[in-house]
Design goal:
Helix 1 crosses helix 11, helix 2 packs across helix 3 and helix 2 packs antiparallel against helix 8. This protein has 14 helices and nine strands. It has two domains: 208 residues, Hypothetical protein, domain 2 (Endonuclease III, domain 1); 125 residues, Nucleoside Triphosphate Pyrophosphohydrolase (Alpha-Beta Complex), CATH 3.90.79.
Amino acid sequence: MSLFAARLLAWFGRHGRHDLPWQHPRSAYRVWISEVMLQQTRVGAVIPYFQAFMGRFPDVPALAKAPLDEVLHLWSGLGYYARARNLHRAARLVLERHGGELPAERSALETLPGIGRSTAAAILAQAHGQREAILDGNVRRVLARHAAVEGWPGSTTVQKQLWALAEARLPGARMADYTQAIMDLGATVCTRAQPACEHCPVAPDCVALAQGRTVELPTPRPGRALPLRTRWAALVIAPEGAYLQRRVAAGIWGGLYSMPEADEKQDLRESILSRWTDAREDAPDAGDRIDHTFSHYRLELRILRFRLPAAACGIMEGDGAIWYNTRLPVRVGLPAPIERFLRDRGNIDNGANR
């Protein structure tokens, strides 16, 4: 066993996290769901989502047979919704190809949507004790500092270096504990800002610490200003609620329900008034705008308000749309910024009386 692994496992026994919900029981399915949820999301934020997800989809068949709308509904607020769509697609493939049990080979796991090398390795190491290295964000940070690896970890060259380091440090046994331990070290000690090096079990031979470079490593992604994109959205209110359309599966907020949108204000207005000839455009409320930052651009969504005298309630299957009421919401996925806007500024509950 490497000295790195021995120190880390000893530290994990005293200071690691042993009561995470996906550890009890630690099945391949539960590890898979947790690993996908934890991508770019903190443990504390994931736990309530994981528990609700397991309560509704306790195994692969339950997830595979569920409507996508319900999966997205339980994912609402976690962001990066392609993860949920990929989970649903992968569950259906596992049911079809593997009888509802996740395969125990990395090559087979990597053929499933949303499962890359690190996620597959995490499943195999934690659920089956297989000797597989992982390389999530926390692990990249630990290794980049411990070996003083130069360069942005997202680049191909640096990733190859980090994978080699990750494999070289693996223990010969206790793979489930080791995998959790190195993730815990990055999450709780070797943090992005103000790492607690005095509590780190591998500090004695950490090159970045010896060189006084823990602040600068790992190398940040090359800076770039996020472009601003402005679009218009229509809040169409009827006595039954607000009109929402299902977005196309690909792209931002794919497969979720949201307000109709357009690039141009006049195009959106004409689209709404041509569809509902009895619609009345209301004066905008103060603050009728949604600002949201994605990984590659900032969105400014400006709102137009329309009111209808009447509308059909419920899900309109052929139209891919619903009437959404905040008091009696249907179980579909909504982008968190849209849901917050409807709840806080939509004025839906008393829409018929305004």
